């Protein structure tokens, strides 16, 4: 079996373990599947943590990580036919997987179902072709990178017209009842005014597709906060020899989520070329969107990009992670009270998967008198394009209704709702009518500068 991703990290898994049950085909991919030891933490309907949102809304073990592992073992053992990736069995067990990474964090065996799903989709695309909707969603960075105004106009028109929304549902499978976030009227533009003093040196800010085209206020706020903390902020731009110098850089997340691995690898190579000077200089790399920054520290290892990926992983930080690290080295941030009701904080699944919520809580505690509660919730249910898909719309809402949306509705009407994930903010606004904010935007509001 030829795989699209590099599974060599699993080369020694199952060695000498009589109970590992590694399938007879699939090589190291099969070993990644076989790490499951049937602990069944994925079949919890209550309790803290993310895993497994599809089981939590259905109560059906068929939609748990363990069941998915069993199906992949059967497929790789030849029990599901000659081309199991094109068949209905694997498609059914993977249907409600939202790639939350909860299993990688919370499963005692650290099953990486997110990566396993990416390989599954890539194999399925080989067998059946890339579905039209997957091409549409996966190519988002290219669409908005080259045709932002046209995309904005089409999305706004579709959102206003019930007829067009229903036509799009029929032709593309995009849920008619779900608004689609349009690109902002003006994308992110780097300030040309250099700080008069930057005693703490330079940082490289990775402005992802969503922060650049859809919510530029997030990148603007992060720049202001980092500048106030004493840093010279440089925006990560394509390398001089990039084939598309005018298109902002992308981590490839949308391509990975739709199984378009070669397209993701192309985006990742653009990123690595742009990062090479920062790698050499040891410059910190700061990201704003959890799933995008986490791609640099996680999925890039599986794209076969070379040894430099390991160094990127050491230099790349989420916005809050970087601030906490620098505070331990003497950085101070001038902040004033906000005089707001107790806030609610929702963590992106990928933030939770790497334990990054500790940094978010720490940073929020710097705002004088600011109180907040962390919402104990599984995946918000939007999960990139999952909540936009017609057949998954109800499942997406059900995940949000487990605890996230009821908790928000019960909060004070003017209580801040904090969420770093673009998809999370989309789901919260759509389901509650409340407008959430990124931590960077909240910190900029709290800056005490003249």
TrEMBL record:
Keywords linked to the UniProt accession: 4Fe-4S, Iron, Iron-sulfur, Metal-binding, Repeat
Domain annotation 4Fe-4S ferredoxin-type: ranges: 88-116
Pfam families: CCG, Fer4_8
The organism of origin for this protein: Azospirillum rugosum
InterPro entries: 4Fe4S_Fe-S-bd, 4Fe4S_Fe_S_CS, Cys_rich_dom
The UniProt record lists the keyword Metal-binding: yes
Region forming the signal peptide: none
Annotated PROSITE patterns: 4FE4S_FER_1, 4FE4S_FER_2
Protein name per the record: Fe-S oxidoreductase
């Amino acid at each position: 079996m030829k795989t699209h991703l590099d599974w060599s990290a699993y080369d020694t898994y199952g060695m000498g373990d009589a109970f590992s049950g590694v399938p007879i085909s699939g090589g190291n991919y099969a070993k990644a599947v076989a790490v499951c030891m049937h602990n069944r933490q994925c079949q919890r309907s209550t309790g803290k943590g993310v895993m497994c949102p599809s089981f939590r809304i259905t109560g059906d073990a068929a939609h748990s990580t363990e069941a998915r592992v069993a199906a992949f073992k059967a497929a790789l053992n030849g029990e599901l036919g000659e081309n199991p990736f094109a068949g209905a069995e694997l498609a059914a067990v993977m249907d409600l997987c939202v790639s939350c990474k909860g299993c990688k964090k919370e499963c005692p065996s650290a099953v990486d179902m997110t990566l396993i799903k990416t390989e599954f989709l890539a194999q399925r695309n080989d067998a059946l072709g890339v579905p039209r909707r997957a091409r549409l969603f996966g190519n988002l960075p290219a669409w908005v990178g080259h045709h932002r105004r046209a995309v904005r106009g089409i999305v706004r028109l579709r959102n206003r017209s019930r007829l067009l929304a229903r036509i799009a549902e029929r032709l593309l499978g995009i849920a008619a009842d779900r608004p689609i976030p349009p690109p902002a009227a003006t994308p992110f533009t780097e300030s040309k005014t250099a700080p008069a003093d930057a005693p703490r040196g330079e940082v490289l800010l990775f402005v992802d597709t969503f922060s650049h085209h859809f919510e530029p206020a997030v990148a603007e706020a992060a720049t202001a906060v980092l500048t106030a903390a004493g840093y010279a902020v440089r925006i990560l731009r394509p390398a001089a020899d990039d084939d598309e110098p005018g298109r902002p850089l992308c981590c490839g997340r949308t391509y990975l989520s739709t199984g378009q691995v070669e397209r993701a690898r192309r985006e990742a190579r653009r990123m690595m070329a742009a990062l090479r000077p920062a790698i050499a200089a040891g410059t910190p790399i700061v990201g704003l969107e959890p799933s995008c920054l986490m791609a640099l520290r996680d999925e890039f290892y599986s794209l076969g990009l070379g040894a430099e990926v390991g160094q990127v992983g050491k230099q790349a930080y989420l916005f809050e992670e970087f601030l906490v690290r620098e505070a331990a080295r003497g950085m101070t941030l001038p902040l004033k009270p906000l005089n707001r009701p107790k806030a609610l904080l929702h963590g992106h699944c990928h933030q939770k998967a790497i334990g990054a919520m500790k940094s978010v809580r720490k940073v929020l505690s710097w705002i004088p008198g600011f109180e907040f509660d962390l919402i104990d919730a599984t995946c918000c249910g939007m999960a990139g394009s999952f909540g936009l898909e017609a057949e998954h719309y109800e499942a997406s809402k059900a995940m949000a209704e487990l605890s996230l949306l009821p908790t928000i509705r019960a909060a004070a009407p003017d209580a801040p709702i904090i969420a770093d994930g673009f998809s999370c903010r989309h789901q919260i606004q759509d389901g509650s009518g409340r407008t959430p904010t990124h931590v960077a935007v909240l910190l900029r509001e709290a800056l005490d500068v003249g």
